[in-house]
């Protein structure tokens, strides 16, 4: 069976959409000195080096050089002034890649599969940034534009497994997927327990497979490098001032990111310690027996009975408050603070239930104890705050009264189950909506009309 006989190969290497953009001029292309240094490092650790751009070693990698260079640059860009322009530019680069691959006589099936994997890797890099993770990029991603799919993190590895069964026939495509992994693509392994270690093992296995077919690479990247160096010795040590300034800025940014992540890690621990503090008990004198308080009628559970039966929400009606629990795994994508569109009707029903009962509403976000460290969410607390604010803003808009709703982040504190299994961690990833309602008035002896 041809490993390309899947939905990816059904799309031929033809132009899609109507995006236009100019070529990007930043980033070294494979073959430049920066890429060669990375290649030497990879070879020292048993990884294959990149195919040369113009020697016909791998036409797919040579055609995709510009897109491969953009993956790490996009992923570590904290701010971008115009994400929409960047998406159009990438779409134009993908169409140019298709044309270059056709000129190099790559097959339509290989071009379609390569385009699918490049779109998936570029979309993931953008989604992990503060400016691309808000949900707008995923709704208008490259994969949606070219393949009408929203997420390729699973199919990427399904395709890889099929290609590895025919390494000699699919060597060019295997090398392209290998470079996507080396440049940081994780796909489904980003949300799996111990996913980073599993992905490292897969990448090493893929490297050995490629080397078994391609053979060892020549340790020398150029056979005439000594003559070139001798002629350029006078210019080699003349470092431009702009390069020194750029290096200083880069080092400063690296120090800032490192300190920010270190502070986020410590803040998570401090927040957890605060949550474990026990308030000393106060001994109170027992009061005189009062009349028995009747069990309050269901405040929200009756209205939300259909959602409770479907397992969408949990409701606890107590004497002074009602608590609605929303499971975070169904409410948000992994690592995101944007509410999934299919959950909007459920939140509309919750808002309708809250509108029938007066009282303040507190929306609290919770996470599991797995640390979150990214540019957008430096800590678990930051993620829990943004998730709570996302739900609170929807409820406030539905209620028409923003003063009733308040959002709070609780991070990994107050778990409902031990964080020792994946199922328990999923239970701890939640949003709780608490309605603080006035308790029912009690009838006291002598009150009311005499019989």
UniProtKB/TrEMBL annotation:
Segments forming domain OmpA-like: 319-439
Record has Membrane as a keyword: yes
UniProt entry keywords in alphabetical sequence: Membrane
InterPro entries for the chain: OmpA-like (IPR006665), OmpA-like_dom_proteobacteria (IPR017733), OmpA-like_sf (IPR036737), T4/T6SS_DotU (IPR017732), T4/T6SS_DotU_sf (IPR038522)
Keyword Membrane in record: yes
Pfam family, one: DotU
Region (Disordered): 1-33
GO cellular component: membrane
PANTHER family: DOTU FAMILY TYPE IV_VI SECRETION SYSTEM PROTEIN (PTHR38033:SF1), MEMBRANE PROTEIN-RELATED (PTHR38033)
Protein name: DotU family type VI secretion system protein
Species in which this protein is naturally found: Paraburkholderia guartelaensis
């Amino acid at each position: 069976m041809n490993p390309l006989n899947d939905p990816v190969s059904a799309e031929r290497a033809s132009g899609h959409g109507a995006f236009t953009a100019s070529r990007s001029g930043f980033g070294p292309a494979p073959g430049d000195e920066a890429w060669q240094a990375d290649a030497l490092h990879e070879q020292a650790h048993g990884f294959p080096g990149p195919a040369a751009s113009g020697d016909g070693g791998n036409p797919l990698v040579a055609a995709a050089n510009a897109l491969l260079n953009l993956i790490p640059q996009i992923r570590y860009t904290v701010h971008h002034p115009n994400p929409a322009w960047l998406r159009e530019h990438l779409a134009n680069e993908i169409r140019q890649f298709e044309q270059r691959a056709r000129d190099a006589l790559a097959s339509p099936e290989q071009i379609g599969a390569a385009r699918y994997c490049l779109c998936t890797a570029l979309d993931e890099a953008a989604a992990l940034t503060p400016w691309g993770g808000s949900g707008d990029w995923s709704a208008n991603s490259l994969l949606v534009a070219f393949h009408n799919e929203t997420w390729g993190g699973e199919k990427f590895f399904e395709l890889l497994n099929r290609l590895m069964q025919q390494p000699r026939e699919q060597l060019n495509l295997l090398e392209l997927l290998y470079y996507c992994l080396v440049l940081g693509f994780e796909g489904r392994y980003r949300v799996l327990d111990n996913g980073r270690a599993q992905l490292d093992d897969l990448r090493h296995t893929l490297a050995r497979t490629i080397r078994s077919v391609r053979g060892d690479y020549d340790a020398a990247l150029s056979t005439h490098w000594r003559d070139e160096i001798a002629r350029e010795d006078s210019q080699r040590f003349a470092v431009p001032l702009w390069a020194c300034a750029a290096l200083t800025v880069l080092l400063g940014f690296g120090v800032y990111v490192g300190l920010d992540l270190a502070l986020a890690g410590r803040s998570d621990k401090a927040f957890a310690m605060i949550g474990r503090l026990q308030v000393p008990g106060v001994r109170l004198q027992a009061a005189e027996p009062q009349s028995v308080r009747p069990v309050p009628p269901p405040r929200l559970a009756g209205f939300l009975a259909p959602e409770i039966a479907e397992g969408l929400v949990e409701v606890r009606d107590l004497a002074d408050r009602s608590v609605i629990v929303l499971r975070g795994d169904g409410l948000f994508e992994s690592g995101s603070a944007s509410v999934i569109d299919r959950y909007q009707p459920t939140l509309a029903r919750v808002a309708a239930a809250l509108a029938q009962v007066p009282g303040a509403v507190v929306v609290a976000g919770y996470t599991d104890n797995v640390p979150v460290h990214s540019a957008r969410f430096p800590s678990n607390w930051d993620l829990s705050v943004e998730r709570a604010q996302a739900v609170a803003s929807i409820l406030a808009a539905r209620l028409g009264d923003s003063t009733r709703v308040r959002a709070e982040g609780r991070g990994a504190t107050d778990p409902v189950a031990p964080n020792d299994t994946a199922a328990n961690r999923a239970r701890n990833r939640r949003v709780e909506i608490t309605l603080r309602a006035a308790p029912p008035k009690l009838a006291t002896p002598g009150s009311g009309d005499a019989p």
